[in-house]
Every structure is written in C-alpha cells, then in structure tokens.
Design brief:
- By secondary structure, the protein is an alpha/beta fold.
- About 25% of the residues lie in helices and about 30% in strands.
- It contains 9 helices and 15 strands.
- The protein is globular.
- The N and C termini lie close together (about 10 Å).
C-alpha cells in the first residue's frame, strides 16, 4: 500500500510517499480502506517534532489522526460490521503511530462509527477530531438554556462545532472571529458576534459570560470576562489560565470514542452539525497541503484523498 510518512522532523518537505505492506486486522480490529484524511494541527506538530520526546525510534512515522473510509476486512470477534460499510474514526495516534495518510488502516472496531448517510466521505472525514473536542468543551462549559457561552475561534473547526453544539443546547452564544466571518458564525447559530482584537475583553466587559470555550488559544487575557464561579475551557494546557474567583478552568483532553462519535454522526444527520471542506489534495501532495495549512486563513478543512 501507499502511505505518506516522515523519517525526520522538519518542514513539509520531510513528508515522502512510501510503499509499505498492507496490515492485517487482529482480534477486535477492522481494516479500513481510507477514502479521506483531513490535515490537522497535531499532524503538523508531529512532523515538526513537537512530540519528539514521545516517539520511539522507528524507521518512519505515518501522520493523520482521523479518517473516513470503508471496511475492507474484519478480525476475529468483530460483530455487527459489514464489509464495504462506510465508517469514520479517530485514531489514538500516540499509542499506535499508525496514521491515516495511507491507503489502508487497521484500527480497533470500537473506535469507528458508521459514517453519516447522504454525506460524501470527504466531508464525513472532517467530523471525528474537531467534533469530539468541541463536544467535550461544550460539556465542560455547561452550555444550557439560560447560560451565555463565549466561543473564540468560532469560524474554525473546533470553534464552529462548539457554536452549533452550544446553540443546540439552548445557550446564548457569543462568537469571536475575524470581522469577515460574522455571517459565517451567525449562520452556525451564534446569537451575537464579537470581532477578535486585543481589546476584546474590554469590549465584552468583566463578568459578562458564564463560560469561555477558547478555541483560538487566547488564554489568560479572557479570564476577566467570566463571571465568578463560571467556567473557562482551554484546548492546550500551557494556555489554560490560573483559576481565580471560583472559576473552573478545564483543559480538553479528547480521546477516541466510537460510541460518542456515533452520537455526533446522528447530529450531522439531524442537521445540527455542518461539515465544511475547504480544499482537497491527492495524498501524494500532502506536503503542499501542510504548507497551505501553515499559511492560515483556511475556512473549512484541508483533506487528503488517497
């Protein structure tokens, strides 16, 4: 099979196309023929060496943490899964180092979910990582009717899902994004819009929200807008502010969860979650996709197609 891998750390140029044996599923596993694999910040970080201390010596590493595809084969003990079934999944990459930038992938059967119906697999591939992250963030924020939740980075992958999920729970959502993204985030369900900027906290006012979901990684400067006893949800531990005024500060630690992913698929089918693809690239052009990602300004996802 063909895969894109890196054997040293660096820029997009370290990604190379390799031939590697097609894996065989063991007990409790499935073999998936990959149809689409989104580019994520964690892929960029792995390639650049951000996880070097966590990676054992190997000939190469294949990046990619989420995918959509079809079941090609099943291992012993796997039930309720049919050959050819479209699925989506999130990979425990730091445990397996078997990424989705490839033709075929073996993964535990309980980590995949049936792909949403009436959605092409390219779009479906963009659901697992960001939706699971946003779902956890919305839960930590306590989004519910009568509560005001501020979502930064609301035009991005995690932020966009957070806006939709919090809105679906009845929360009043204030979306923070670039000035040109107001129509986009309001279309996702935001009640109010605030343009990002250094004076954001001043414009919003002290204690003006019950919770912040900080998908834009602003960190401590936003803590004053949370009321006493409220919640602040960070996506990266280094940018989680020190708690004060009885505010609960939580960092999202997402993990693959096939059952929760299936519930999120249901929300796609119900029209609650919107899947957004910005551009697609052939798998062999993964380096170009990484370079485009690093330029920023992408609205939607970059997806590799094997």
């Amino acid at each position: 099979m063909v895969a894109v891998a890196f054997s040293r750390f660096g820029g997009p140029e370290v990604l190379e196309v390799i031939d590697t044996p097609t894996p065989t599923p063991g007990p409790g596993e499935v073999l998936v023929k990959i149809a689409a694999a989104p580019v994520n910040p964690v892929d960029i970080g792995a390639r650049a060496g951000a996880f070097a201390a966590l990676l054992p010596a190997r000939e190469y590493w294949v990046p990619g943490v989420e995918f959509a595809g079809r079941i090609e084969a099943v291992g012993a003990g796997v039930e309720g899964t049919q050959i050819g079934q479209p699925v989506v999944g999130l990979i425990p990459w730091l445990a397996t180092f078997a990424g989705s930038y490839t033709d075929y992938l073996v993964i535990a059967a309980d980590l995949v979910a049936a792909a949403p119906t009436d959605v092409d697999l390219t779009a479906a591939s963009t659901l697992p990582l960001n939706a699971i992250t946003a779902d956890l963030a919305v839960s930590y924020a306590g989004a519910a009717a009568g509560r005001t939740v501020l979502v930064t980075g609301a035009a991005g992958g995690v932020g966009g899902y957070a806006v939709q999920l919090a809105t679906s729970l009845g929360a009043r959502v204030i979306a923070v994004a670039g000035a040109g993204d107001e129509d986009l985030v309001r279309g996702l369900g935001a009640s109010e819009f605030a343009a990002r900027g250094d004076d954001l906290a001043q414009r919003l006012g002290a204690g003006s929200v019950d919770a912040v979901i900080d998908a834009a990684l602003i960190g401590a400067p936003l803590l004053p807008v949370v009321r006493d006893g409220g919640a602040f949800v960070a996506l990266l531990p280094p940018l989680a502010p020190t708690a004060e005024r009885d505010i609960t500060v939580t960092t999202v630690q997402q993990a693959p969860d096939g059952r929760r992913l299936a519930e999120l698929v249901n929300l796609v089918e119900a029209g609650t979650l919107t899947l957004r693809v910005a551009e697609t690239y052939p798998l062999a052009q993964a380096a170009e996709a990484h370079a485009r990602f690093e330029k920023g300004g992408v609205r939607g996802r970059l997806v590799l197609l094997p």
